[in-house]
Structure formats: structure tokens, C-alpha cells
Amino acid sequence: MTQKTAKSQQADETSTTRYAALLRGINVGGHKKVPMAELRSLLAGLGHGDVQTYLQSGNAVFSSANQDPAALARELEAAIEAHFGFRVACLVVDGAYLSAVADACPFPAAELEGRQLHATFLSEQPGPERFAALDAEAFLPEEYRVGDRVVYLYAPDGLGRSKLAEALARPAVVKGVEATTRNWNTVAKLVELTSP
């Protein structure tokens, strides 16, 4: 092995990626309480660096040399279950992916309130058959678009009143897929926090 190759390999081993961990369904109505300070400690205990959390709804960012987001998600799920005694579904995505999701938004994000635009992140790419039974016109003016492991949702009256959000959460659409939704303000903040 040449000295140059050895140095580049060492650099690869020490380079880190900035990730966001998206936890599903925590701290809602007193169920599955995960204090953010404890979540930060858990992530640091797993060997991750530059750990931060955003809001109380299960958003954490961290740096890791591990290049396998799915493995990072499984590791975090196991740590949460061991520490808190309940399972929490986690999606881990890197900053480049989050930036691409924001850039590919099919709705005019800059012209909308954050509560009107949402992104549902998915653990795998959904096929068109999952949406076949949805009559999109029946939900207008609400709209959705499918992106790269994400569903963009325009809900002018907010998520709480959205009939389309309810339809997109039905088992026919999300069965067997981990899914968690964030409003656009949170998406934009996570892009910022995971930027190099």
C-alpha cells in the first residue's frame, strides 16, 4: 500500500457525515415521552458528534463516520427501546438528501406558511399502486406529490384539518413503511442544521 493510498484511506475513515434522525410519534399527548436532553445523551453515547435537537417532536442532528443511515436508525431504535422501554420508529437521513428534498419541492414553499406545507419522510420509495385508490381531485385544494422517499403535502388549512393527510396515512398507503411527517419550517431548519 502506498503512502498516498494509506493517507486517503485514513481520511475516509475519519470523515463524517451530518445526519438528521427523525423520530416518529414521541411527546404527543403524554405518550412515549423522550426528553431531548436524554436523546442527545443517547446519541453521544453511541459515539456520534456535534449532537443537537430541534423542538420536542423528535428531531436530532449529529455527525457520524458511519455511512449506513438504515444501520444508524436501527441502532438508535435499539438504544431508545433499551433506555426508555418502548419502541420508537426512527428514520435517519443525511444532509445532502434533506437539501435535495427541499430543492425538489413541487410547491412554492417561499410563498406558503410553514404550517401549510409538509413532508412525510418514508423508509422506502412507494410504488404508484399505493396511491391508486386516492381520488386526488376529491381533496382539492389540498394536493400531494411523491418525491424521492418523501410525500409533499400542501394543506392550506394546516395538517390538523387535512382530510388528505388522513387519507395518506391509511394502511393502503403506508403499510410496511416507516413514515414521519414534518412541517416545512422544520424541514428548512433541518436542512440548515445538517449543512456542511
Would you kindly provide a written description of the structure presented here, covering whatever features stand out?
With 196 residues, this protein is an alpha+beta fold. The chain has helices spanning 3-14, 36-45, 69-84, 95-103, 163-168, 171-174, 184-194; strands spanning 17-23, 49-54, 59-64, 90-94, 117-122, 143-146, 150-154, 179-183. The protein has a four-stranded antiparallel sheet, sandwiched between helices. The longest helix has 16 residues, at 69-84.
Structure summary:
The protein has 196 residues and is α+β, with helices and mostly antiparallel strands. The chain is built from 7 helices and 8 strands, in the order αβαββαβαβββααβα. α4 packs across α7.
What's the arrangement of secondary structure elements?
Elements: H1 3-14, E1 17-23, H2 36-45, E2 49-54, E3 59-64, H3 69-84, E4 90-94, H4 95-103, E5 117-122, E6 143-146, E7 150-154, H5 163-168, H6 171-174, E8 179-183, H7 184-194
Antiparallel strand pairs: 1-3, 1-4, 2-3, 5-7, 5-8, 6-7
Helix pairs in contact: 4-7
Number of discrete helical segments: 7
- Uncertain runs are 1-13
- Beta-strand residue fraction: 15-25%
End-to-end separation: 31 Å
The major pleated sheet works out as: 4 strands, antiparallel
What is the spatial order of strands in the main beta sheet?
2-3-1-4
The total strand number stands at 8
Structural class computed from helices and strand pairing: alpha+beta
